[in-house]
């Protein structure tokens, strides 16, 4: 997701504070970690400037003191973060645009930052009562502004577009703008087996344009009962290729990147962080731990889903499913104790390391799986996605399905304030500056 990303409710709080200034222009300085691989800025801190920071200030212009600019440049250079110069247009009656006064002032600030600040693309941002815009500092190149939390909200204007007639019934549900935003996002699907293949099918029918599929597995005979889109002759083919074929049959214009790879291998991170929204459909703890952390570390919302059928002496005793959104402000999989640390350690081993570790016992036992139950959980996940991206009023962000009772319950869970994965004390918003739990290549024992 390229653009400037705020962790919710950061943008809304900033706009409310800046616009509460008796009609005067107000300024703030943001500091953001720039991720060149995906062209995004992760907002780490914002400081609203006090009255003594202004050289002059009125309803249509504001000029900062040179000492303030020096301080901003120094902090940018020392921290290695991009500066975001934010000001308001409190009297604009529509979404604000940058003025000629802004153009002149930015040109000088851009030259100053080029000499004194970090050698990064810095930004300018304007906020009004009816919207916001951002651009590269000193140029007209626009930058999208996102707020990431329980919803993925585009705060800057959405470029006008024409929706397809085939999406008419959906547009009647969540409007032209909702369909346009749903279509333009880049989705990642991690795991395209039982639940993942159903997710792929529904994304194609929803009219999305760009999807990255990641799964290392090949189709097996035992997959044919539940992996949608497979036929007997697909046995031995990469699951991602089968899923891509199915999606193109539904929507030929789709752009699909199909990676037959394990998401936890160190070389696959760029493909993951290029996504705007990730659907996590694996049952391995290592892959879930990795993508869980990516959600908070890079401000990329994720929906995790899983299904479990428990049997005893030939009888089904439990049918359960879970769907949980992972995004800034929401509890993560670590907070909800959904991850097994020892299992993560084992799954991050290379085959050579597993053979050498005497604590690794055997292989995983295949679990029962039924397409109808997978379909129920996948549909809950897609509906949660629609609630996060479009105006569909689907509010739950953590659900549990009981197939025996036929019940879906909404669960509540609060983030742990010092969580290593989802808090400011840990990985939240750190981008490439924080290690991820990836599998490193095995180089053998070194003396």
CATH topology of the largest domain: Rossmann fold
CATH superfamily of the largest domain: NAD(P)-binding Rossmann-like Domain
Question: What's the N-to-C terminus distance?
Answer: 43 Å
Number of domains: 2
- Main beta sheet, described? 9 strands, mixed
* Percent of residues in helices: 25-40%
Mean pLDDT, nearest integer? 94
The CATH architecture of the largest domain: 3-Layer(aba) Sandwich
Low-confidence stretches: none
**Which sequence of SSEs, written as H and E, runs from N to C?**
EHEEEEHEHEEEEEHEHEHEHEHEEHHHEE
Strand order of the largest sheet: 9-8-7-6-2-3-1-10-11
The number of helical segments is 11
Number of strands: 19
CATH class of the largest domain: Alpha Beta
Task: Give Rg in angstroms.
Answer: 24 Å
Shape type: globular
Strand content: 15-25%
What structural class results from the helix and strand content? alpha/beta
GO molecular function: tRNA threonylcarbamoyladenosine dehydratase; ubiquitin-like modifier activating enzyme activity
Pfam family, one: ThiF
Protein name: THIF-type NAD/FAD binding fold domain-containing protein
């Amino acid at each position: 997701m390229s653009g400037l990303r705020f962790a919710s409710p950061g943008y809304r709080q900033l706009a409310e504070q800046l616009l509460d200034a008796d009609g005067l222009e107000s300024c703030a300085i943001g500091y953001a970690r720039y991720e060149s691989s995906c062209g995004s800025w992760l907002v780490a801190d914002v400081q609203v400037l006090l009255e003594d920071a202004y050289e002059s200030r009125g309803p249509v212009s504001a000029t900062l003191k040179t000492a303030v600019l020096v301080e901003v440049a120094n902090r940018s250079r020392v921290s290695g973060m991009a500066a975001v110069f934010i000001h308001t247009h409190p009297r604009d009656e529509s979404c604000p645009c940058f003025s000629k006064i802004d153009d002149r002032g930015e040109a000088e600030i851009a030259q100053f930052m080029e000499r004194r600040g970090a050698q990064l693309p810095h930004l300018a941002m304007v906020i009004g009562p009816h919207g916001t815009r951002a651009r590269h500092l000193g140029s007209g190149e626009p930058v999208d502004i996102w707020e990431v939390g329980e919803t993925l909200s585009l705060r800057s204007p959405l470029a006008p577009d024409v929706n397809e007639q085939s999406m008419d019934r959906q547009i009647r549900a969540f409007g032209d703008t909702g369909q346009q935003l749903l279509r333009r996002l880049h989705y990642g699907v991690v795991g395209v087996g039982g639940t993942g293949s159903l997710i792929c099918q529904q994304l194609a029918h929803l009219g999305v344009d760009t999807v990255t599929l990641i799964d290392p597995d090949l189709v097996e005979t035992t997959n044919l009962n539940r992996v949608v889109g497979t036929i007997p002759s697909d046995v031995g083919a990469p699951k991602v290729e089968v899923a891509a074929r199915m999606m193109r049959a539904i929507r030929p214009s789709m752009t699909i990147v199909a990676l037959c790879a394990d998401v936890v291998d160190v070389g696959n991170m760029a493909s993951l962080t290029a996504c705007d929204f990730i659907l996590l459909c694996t049952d391995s703890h290592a892959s879930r731990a990795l993508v869980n952390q990516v959600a908070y570390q890079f401000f990329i919302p994720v929906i995790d889903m899983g299904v479990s059928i428990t049997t005893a002496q030939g009888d089904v005793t439990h049918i359960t499913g879970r769907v949980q959104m992972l995004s800034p402000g929401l509890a993560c999989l670590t907070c909800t104790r959904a991850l097994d640390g020892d299992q993560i350690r084992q799954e991050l081993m290379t085959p050579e390391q597993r053979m050498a570790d005497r604590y690794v016992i055997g292989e995983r036992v295949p679990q029962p799986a039924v397409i109808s139950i997978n379909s129920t959980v996948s549909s809950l996940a897609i509906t949660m996605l629609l609630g996060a991206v479009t105006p569909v009023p689907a509010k739950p962000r953590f659900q549990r399905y009981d197939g025996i009772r036929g019940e879906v319950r909404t669960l509540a869970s609060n983030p742990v304030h010092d969580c290593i994965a989802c808090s400011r004390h840990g990985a939240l918003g750190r981008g490439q500056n924080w290690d991820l739990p990836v599998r490193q290549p095995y180089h053998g024992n070194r003396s």
